[in-house]
Amino acid sequence: MTPYLRSGLPKPVPDSDGLDAPFWEGLRSERLLLQRCNGCNGWQWGAEFVCHRCHSFDLRYEETKPDGIIYSHQRVWHPVHPALAEQGPYIIVLVELPHADNVRVVGNLIGDPMQSLVIGARLHGVFEHHPEDDPAHTLLQWAVTD
């Protein structure tokens, strides 16, 4: 697969506290791992030390399907980084995961950057591997489900 984004962007790495490392490790093996509370069983993302619902510190990472719906989107025309100078337009989506307590994650929508978008449209995750980068990493991109 041809990478959606051009090279030159900062490489994604786990936070210095390592809290989100399981998320990035999961992407490398084409698995979407998000936090889930052992106390109330609720899902959450971004990575936190405490559950947003019941305030338990007993959290785990659990796999969920990389399928969701468009909650919101933005078609970007102006580059936010010099490496994106020739990239625009591109589409950023806020993806809601109905099977994981409607947790929302942000990503790029692959495909025609001028495609029509509908709030609520179904999406599926596409794992974009970058083994040649240092450090090697995988991005979770999104595509409209046919």
From TrEMBL:
Domain ChsH2 C-terminal OB-fold: 64-127
Protein name listed in UniProt: Unannotated protein
Record-annotated ChsH2 rubredoxin-like zinc ribbon domain positions: 24-59
Lineage summary: unclassified sequences, metagenomes, ecological metagenomes
